User: Fold this.
Amino acid sequence: MTTPAANKFFSSRALLLTTTVLVAAVLAVIIFFVGSKIFGENDGLASDQETRNVANSATTLPTGTFAAASLDSETNTATNATELTATTLPIAGSETSTNITKPANSPETPKGTASTSQPTNTRPVTPQPDNGKPYMHITFDDGPHELTIYVLNMLAKHNVQATFFIQGQTLEQKPEIARQALNAGHAIGNHSYKHDGWKTIGISAAKADMIKTQGVIQNTLGITPSCARAPFGDDSPEVVAALAELGMDHWEWDLDPKEWESGRDGRLKNLLDNPSSVPKLTNTDGYILLLHDSHPSLQSAIDTLDAWIAANKDNYQFTAIPGCLNYQ
Assistant:
């Protein structure tokens, strides 16, 4: 039988033990939560770092990749150029075939030189001939088309450079033909999406149309033209100013044989033989010739041009319109 003093002693010891256990339990809980928070933050930091490392490894380009991409841009998509180098097509007026070759580049003005800060109806000026011969800038509207292949081979036969004002909708239908023209060294210009007249659709819609065509050309050929020809050659001050706002110079023509009308082959030869017989419309040291590569029926005009170039190769400098090879 315990005494009251003994009971008091054991009761105090039990209370002390209970208090110690409770304190230890509370400390254990606190240590557990604090430790979990610390380790969780470390795991989060490690996870974030791992994510950054993965992102960096995915976006870091190997040495030389950026330089190669820049070279492709400078050379108008070199990948496409090598892809079509071996393309063999028939030469105009010949039963043999040849590869399309790149003619010597025309003298070019520095990029943007032709544009004016205050758009006017004044045409860009061609640089002075370096050998005293006038320029003959041959241009083709409305392609690309199957006839364009015939044209390209005729030009390659004479090592002559030309300018192609293409439509967006035909480019979407015949992209490989347009690439052949580009890769052969010819200039590419914007000729609207589907040849809607600006006077019919209005300036705002026409600008949107030209912007759309720029996008098609950029996505298909990897270039953004700096030259344009409005449908039907509309060269009103409003058109010229609107195109200048889009970074493009408008180019009209001097010689228009209207070869799309029947019986016009004779007129083409007469114009080429006597270019001064018609009013001059452009500020060039030579002439800009308008032709079309949009329909097989126009092949006879290409044959006429073929023969004329052969007879007059030494009398003119045959180049693309200056500045049209300086893509934006």
About this structure: The radius of gyration is 37 Å. Strands lie at 88-90, 97-99, 135-141, 163-166, 187-190, 227-228, 249-250, 286-292, 317-318.
